[in-house]
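README, section 4: Worked example with a bound small molecule

Sections 1 through 3 covered apo chains. Here we extend the same pipeline to holo records, where the ligand is supplied as SMILES alongside the sequence. The molecule in this example is zinc ion. Nothing else about the input changes; the structure line simply encodes the ligand pose together with the chain.
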Amino acid sequence: MPFACRVCGGRSGTADAAGPGHWICTRCGWRLGDAFDSDLPRPVVAVVYYLRFGGRVKIGTSEQPRRRLAAIRHDEVLAFERGGRALEQQRHREFAAIREGGEWFTLDEALRAHIDALRAAASDPWLAYDRWLGEAFRNASS
Ligand SMILES: [Zn+2]
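The generated complex, written as structure tokens:
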């Protein structure tokens, strides 16, 4: 594409039937040729994140995961799940038995199975996040 997608930063797209100069971002589905109203607020997508550090997993939530996760020491982003505070609290209750303290949990079989199920639906957490962002963007601008 002639310039990066404004929603997810992706560079690859497919030519849109709307005509020359119109592209659809491969990552998030935003229509690059659409007029972009810079007064529109960027879409906000809250996620529950699963962040592994050693044998522990932090289950938290953020509306700005790139910024948030950059500030937390971790080995690996295991998965994202679309949802905010309510979903985070629900997961904290579900895994209360393996809670080590704060938002950190022992990576046991049950938690691993839960994360595997999320990864089966979206193997790349950041790609999934970009898609949700693209969806939210399209919903907000239509
Ligand atoms: Zn995009």
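What to look for in the output: The beta strands are 13-15, 23-25, 47-53, 56-62, 76-82, 99-101, 104-106. The chain is about 30% helix and 25% strand.

Section 5 describes how to batch many such records.
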